[in-house]
Write a structure and sequence with these properties.
By secondary structure, the protein is of the alpha/beta class. The chain has helices spanning 22-26, 36-48, 71-78, 95-103, 117-124, 128-144, 167-180, 196-208, 227-237, 264-273, 282-296, 303-321, and strands spanning 17-20, 53-54, 57-58, 90-91, 108-114, 148-154, 184-189, 216-220, 241-244.
Amino acid sequence: MTLPMVVPAPGLPARVRIHEVGARDGLQNEKSTVPTEVKAEFIRRLADAGLTTIEATSFVHPKWVPQLADAEQLFPLVSDLSELKVALPVLVPNQRGLDRALALGAKRVAVFASATESFAKANLNRTLDESLAVFEPVVRRAKAEGAHVRGYVSMCFGDPWEGAVPLHQVVRVCAALRDMGCDELSLGDTIGVATPGHVLELLSSLNEQGVPTNVLGVHFHDTYGQALANTYAALEHGVTTVDASAGGLGGCPFARSATGNLATEDLVWMLQGLGIETGVDLGRLVATSTWMADRLGRPSPSRTVRALSHKDSEESMESQEQ
């Protein structure tokens, strides 16, 4: 029997684009340095599993995120994937980062904003408005160079220093990024405190202020086990872009309470069961995350990876006994 059984639910999108963040957001918090060649192989395996948007790296200063200090060496090792219609967005924190990315031929870039003052100061060492002022010329130049620009907005649902984040505060930052020229916005639940009703309320508030659903993606962390429930709520609202990290890798180096991202395998399992197309081969994806977990020296936190890996091991043992 093939599982999960497909039982579509009414009113959900026919297809979802997964924005895979494992190679950047997933690895950035690793304490031990992952070799550049392993990162490149990881990205290629993710592409082979059918993922068409794979965030490759960040052109941030190595002092802030040492794990991604090899951006200049890594990007050329995977840039040919663009010929196979695989998008390889990269994070650019400022003009210097954008210059470095454009020099290597990057066609998709992302800026990383905050919905709160506290996180803007912790992550960017600036006030919220100062950080937006820094991003404006970056976005403008990126657009002038023909690049697609994504705007990340962190702490959309809660902040470890400020607590609950008012909806109007998130909407203001999102609207500012749209006005700058961002093509897409990713709503980040950085510390994983969102619940489905909160998700729906924020999406509705954004729509009411002129930010359409088709430019919105969602980025959930699974701190309280709510990532899939929150994703389902976003799908009900019409969102068709979902961020996820292969194997559930990741956290946030600037927010200690941030745990792993929504695991791509767990997301694909749910979407398959709902009959929603993703283009992803779940078996290959599980094999990729198992491979990376071996490289990192620990098991994958993804429940789907663990379940399917265990199932494969049991079937292998049974066949040997026969």
